[in-house]
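Structure ticket #2291
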Amino acid sequence: MTPECILLIGIQAAGKSTFAAERFARTHVILNLDTLRTRRREERLLLECLEQRRSFVVDNTNVSRAERARYLPLAGAAGYRRVGYAFEAAIGPALERNARRERVVPPYAVQATRNRLQWPALDEGFDELHFVRLAGNGFRIEPWEPHEI
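Resolution: structure written out below.
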């Protein structure tokens, strides 16, 4: 089976980590800078995944093409299927969820991330893209089409 590189794309408190835990924790290694703390550790784990052909999820904001370019070319060269899940970026609901988190991100930082958001495109190297909305206590995955920022 072809291993997967899953990139989650969205502002803080968009639901990315919950989505990763619910959907991929049993089948993929989850790379998350909040947990790993340094890019060096993240890179080491990423290279291990590639060497061992293990599927992985990059659970960071990944809001710019440059950030996504850390992973997509490496995964593509290793023969991985590259899938992106872009999360709805409504700032009001994200700030409300953020206020309820154990580790609150300063609201100005959430807004700054939103200001840097560049929606993904297939020409970055993705094989597949999806749009994710929060729906009640779960998620609704929709076919990808560019959204207004």
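Closing remark: The mean pLDDT is 94.
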